[in-house]
Amino acid sequence: MFAERYSFKRFYEVVEQNPYLAGFYKDMKRWAFHLQVFFLSKRFAHHYGIQRSGEATIQDRSIYEDPYVFAKNLYLQGNMSENDYRCYLELFENMAQNLEVPDLLVYLRASVPTLCHRIAQRGREFERSIKREYLQQLANHYEDWVATYPGKVLTIDTDGLDFVNNPEDFASMCEQVWESLEQTTFEVPEQTELRFGLRALS
Questions:
Q1: What total number of domains does the chain contain?
Q2: Residue 160: inside a domain, yes or no?
Q3: pLDDT tens digit string along 154-168?
Q4: Catalytic residue among 60, 144, 157, 159
Q5: Disulfide engineering: 200 pairs with which of 15, 41, 88, 171, CB 3.0-4.6 Å?
Q6: How many angstroms separate the CA atoms of 173 and 107, rounded?
Q7: Host domain of residue 121
Q8: Is the pLDDT of residue 31 over 90?
Q9: What is residue 189's predicted lDDT score, i.e. its pLDDT?
């Protein structure tokens, strides 16, 4: 929504394109490494392409989340072997050497009940088997990761917010993002029209 409103280029997470996803939720130990390497490859390609283009871009999920949130959680759960996890981290570290940290990371924090509600709303068949305990573990890892992230972070608590159906919630989020971007080296594209005050509303 933000990208469309301000004409930013956008890269969405390639969830349904991952050929290992459905099998992963049925047998995590068998498919965890394959799943994470697929996502790592796609996110690297997106990030590197964004970096080379120099265009104002929003990426749905960053490459930095996988090793410190998702892959880490799978390893700690015993669903990824130590050898696989070490191999995965080495792949990530080699890739990360060629990447620049984004101007801004926007962390949309949500409680587990809110996450469960959103998953139910999406209605994806392969997500129906996700357990609350798994979501809580991911939430904990996110908090740990964000606390040590080397770049600029904007955290927005999204419980009770509805960016899709409530224009005021969306406007408030946009305002916070722009205020944070103004504190970075990010340059607003010339074709981007900003509406100060309630910038998200036309």
A1: 1
A2: yes
A3: 999 999 988 888 889
A4: 60
A5: 171
A6: 11
A7: 2-181
A8: yes
A9: 55
Q: Does residue 192 lie within any of the structural domains?
A: no
Longest dimension (CA), the chain: 53
54 CB-near residues (< 8 Å, 6+ apart): none
10's CB contacts (< 8 A; 6+ apart) are 3, 4, 57, 58, 59, 60
- CATH number, domain containing residue 170: 3.40.50.300
Of 107, 95, 103, residue with least CA distance to 45? 95
Buried b / exposed e across 57-78, counting CB within 10 Å, b at 16+? bbbebbbbbbbbbbbbbbbeee
Token reading at 15: 């969830």
Kindly write down the DSSP assignment for every residue of 30-69, as one continuous string. HHHHHHHHHHHHHHHHHHHHHHHH---EEESS-TTHIIII
Establish if 142 belongs to a structural domain.
yes
Q: Is residue 200 a part of any domain in this protein?
A: no
How far, in Å, CA of 173 to CA of 52, rounded? Answer: 28
Angle, CA 10 vertex, CA 143 and CA 40 arms, to 5°: 55
The pLDDT of residue 187 is 66
pLDDT at 9 over 90: no
pTM (two decimals): 0.80
